[in-house]
Amino acid sequence: MFNIESTDNFSLILDSAKKRFCRYGLKKTTMTEIAGDIGLSKASLYYYFSTKEELFKEVVKQEHKTFLNEIEGLLSSVVPAEELFHIYLERRLIYFRDFAHLSSLSLESINSLKPVYARLFENLRKEEIRLVSKILEKGIAAQDFENLDIAYYSQLFIAIFQGLRHNVLIKKDTINITEIEYSLLQRQYESALKMFVKGIKK
Amino acid sequence: MFNIESTDNFSLILDSAKKRFCRYGLKKTTMTEIAGDIGLSKASLYYYFSTKEELFKEVVKQEHKTFLNEIEGLLSSVVPAEELFHIYLERRLIYFRDFAHLSSLSLESINSLKPVYARLFENLRKEEIRLVSKILEKGIAAQDFENLDIAYYSQLFIAIFQGLRHNVLIKKDTINITEIEYSLLQRQYESALKMFVKGIKK
DNA sequence: TTTAGACTTTCTAACTAAAAAAGTCAAATG
DNA sequence: CATTTGACTTTTTTAGTTAGAAAGTCTAAA
């Protein structure tokens, strides 16, 4: 979950921020704490990041990018589209569990989330749609899938699985997901993917 | 959406409460207002309903029952299971739009909703799962569907479509759903149903 | 049995002040 | 020059506080 130790302050700040944001969320993490973690003063943080918001966005973006890159790297491989979907969803669930606090913002959003974060998460969603589009393209090119409306089906795909994730959070008041909830979600993901693929297969 | 005018006070209260809860939600509706609508004193309301919470629950339950009964009535008809799913989802969307304010509680729930309402909505969800189970049963009995795990698949069914609905609300800060969002949801419902049925068909 | 006026209790919205956290900057360090 | 910081200002959050509103109660009357 937390990778290599970095050396430069920029990365050290991101690392510490990531840990704290994941554990305590945006609101319950202070700039002073992050600075303290790596033996810097708060003022120094502002040398690297203009605002707390900026820092948070950077953490979220980077984590998401790492996640997407992992899948994207397989796009040009021989792995078939269906298997790519499987891998994508598998990793997506792990990402969901580990970074629930980051995306828990999307829960706060229901009330009164600053538009800037709404835009951030909307962008991440769009990037995932783009990735799914590419997988669909690959499947169509390989004659695995029908020649369908890629834009629509990738949007649908993301909507279904995001929806399933939300069902887990919606009832709860804590962010932590139990093993039972997680394994049910896993099973639902498998079933839903099976249906989705069957629905678009040639 | 709002049916026959009732005569007894019990029903008059429910009618007025329904209208106000749908339009303004639970918090923005006062017992005095409801009483005023039908020319009763607030104290009289408490003769029929012990608490505001009780009244609200009664309204939600009744509306949901009306919705479910409509579909349940078709269970013993010649309408095939697949068509029942179609009808169910069609009505479910209308119900969703018209009573968004009622179920908007499920949004408030994310923060700090009293467990009693959480239980209420959980019960409604369970009743819908039960209905879907019956449709599945019918399909299996008619040899339309595979002999699958009914409990699991009805839960999955509800999860998928509830999830899709949530995707619409999650971004918004208002409860009102635009025509564009609604028609996309309609289309997603159709696609998802198609896949679901294809996935379990014999 | 049903209703309502007058009542009490509970909740909420709007303030406040104090504390905490965000954010700034000139000077210092190396 | 790039980086860091202590001391600073500004903004936000929190914890009271209070007044008004709304929930909820009760007794007497129709």
Automatic annotation (TrEMBL), chains A, B:
Point out the DNA-binding stretch(es). 30-49
| Domain of life of the native organism | Bacteria
Question: What is the protein named?
Answer: TetR/AcrR family transcriptional regulator
**Cross-referenced InterPro entries, in alphabetical order?**
DNA-bd_HTH_TetR-type_CS, Homeodomain-like_sf, HTH-type_TetR-like_transc_reg, HTH_TetR, Tet_transcr_reg_TetR-rel_C_sf
Keywords assigned: DNA-binding
A Pfam family of the record is TetR_N
Q: Which GO terms describe its molecular function?
A: DNA binding
Concerning PANTHER family, the annotation shows:
HTH-TYPE TRANSCRIPTIONAL REPRESSOR SCO4008 (PTHR30328:SF54), TRANSCRIPTIONAL REPRESSOR (PTHR30328)
In this chain the HTH tetR-type domain maps to: 7-67
Protein source organism: Flagellimonas pelagia
